[in-house]
Design goal:
The chain is of the alpha/beta class. It has 10 helices and 11 strands. The strands form 3 sheets. It has a 5-stranded parallel beta sheet with strand order 2-1-3-4-5, with helices on both faces. Strands 6-7-11 form a 3-stranded antiparallel beta sheet, with no helix packed on it. Strands 8-10-9 form a 3-stranded antiparallel beta sheet.
Length: 365
């Protein structure tokens, strides 16, 4: 077997094909070669694009994966994925194309919604079809097709590749290593800057999620019972943000449904108009379990909570819940916002208004 290590550039649109790129990276490593992907940099500006072109210049083979997104574009409306493909072709780098089968199942959120982008995508696919390509339906099928095409390219179109330093350490190789080291430092700086931008994006997303939760209200009621078997019912319509902010601290580890039903009326008790009747003493407020179950289900749909997977005794039949990753991030955002006393965008009213929304039903039964 040749000691040369080939460098393969893996190109695709970013978010929708993460898993597929990961599978191809594993495939490249499994045959002893070097994958170069887009995870360490992006093509959002001229400086980054210059670095990407240098990476393509150094690669022995270029692979492009295309599904149902055209991707981010430059000022001329050309996607960076297509720019990379055109550049690799112009430099004579052997190109391997892999198009998703039109009949393959694919998430709707990872498909272009605008006609302009869909038209550009069709034209790009037509360009790819001018050369020999392979079709795929799943990431496993893609990895199989990719390895077969790559090994065939190794035999039909061998490239210079890389060799171990102790096999051929020349002055040119030493200079190349120094150059790569400098480029690596530049890429690390770009990644560092992108992490700062990502932090800002995450904060913005948390603010948007908070505002959405403020706009959703869920009716519920509590009941007070007295020693004479009388009942007093009071109703409110808290925002989902209020509900989450109340429950989240108890779900950092986990808590069960019955406990949350006991806790929430206690947490909100300052907001209730409790019954006042001569000679009658009303006990602690109670809320229905199905109301709390409904809230948890709605929060689950937002990715904020999930059923706990911690082990419990067989005799423990309680339903345990805990925060999901997004819920942890939102709780941190709420606590930091509280500490910094910042105002959330598009928010109306103060904390108490989050619990109000329907008239109190002060009927005694």
């Amino acid at each position: 077997m040749s000691e040369n290590k080939y460098q393969i550039f893996l190109s695709s649109t970013y978010e929708d094909l993460k898993q597929e790129r990961a599978e191809l990276s594993k495939a490249v490593l499994s045959v002893g070669h070097i994958p170069v992907g887009m995870e360490g940099f992006n093509a959002a500006d001229d400086a980054s694009w210059d670095l990407i072109k240098k990476q393509i210049d150094q690669c022995d083979y270029y692979c492009v994966i295309v599904a149902h997104r055209y991707g981010s574009t430059n000022e001329d409306g050309i996607s960076f994925t297509e720019l990379e493909y055109d550049y690799a072709r112009s430099k004579g780098v052997p190109c391997l194309g892999f198009l998703i089968d039109d009949k393959a199942s694919w998430p709707a959120e990872f498909q272009e919604g605008e006609e302009i982008a869909r038209s550009s995508l069709r034209e790009f696919k037509s360009k790819l079809k001018e050369k020999q390509i392979a079709y795929w339906s799943t990431k496993d099928e893609l990895a199989t097709q990719f390895l077969a095409s790559l090994l065939k390219a190794f035999n039909s179109n061998p490239r210079p590749g890389w060799v171990r330093a102790d096999s051929s350490m020349s002055r040119i190789a030493s200079s190349e290593l120094a150059r790569l080291s400098n480029e690596n430092a530049e890429l690390k700086q770009i990644v560092s800057e992108l992490k700062v931008e990502l932090k800002q994006d995450e904060k913005y997303e948390m603010r948007k999620l908070s505002n959405r939760l403020y706009g959703i209200r869920r009716d519920f009621s509590v009941r007070f019972s007295d020693t004479d078997s009388g009942e007093f019912e009071s109703k409110r319509a808290p925002s989902l943000h209020f509900v989450f902010a109340a429950l989240a601290p108890r779900l950092v580890v986990e808590d069960h449904l019955a406990s949350l039903c006991d806790y929430f009326p206690y947490y909100t008790r300052p907001h209730w108009e409790e019954p006042a009747d001569e000679g009658r003493s009303f006990g602690s407020p109670r809320m229905p379990h199905n109301t709390m179950q409904d809230w948890l289900t709605v929060l689950l749909s937002f990715g904020l909570v999930k059923p706990s997977d911690k082990k419990h005794p067989v005799s423990d039949t309680n339903q345990y819940w805990t925060l999901d990753e997004t819920g942890i991030e939102l709780l941190k955002h709420i606590r930091l916002a509280s500490i910094e006393d910042e105002k959330l965008e598009e928010r109306e009213g103060g904390p108490e208004s989050d619990l109000e929304g329907t008239e109190t039903d002060d009927s005694q039964k």
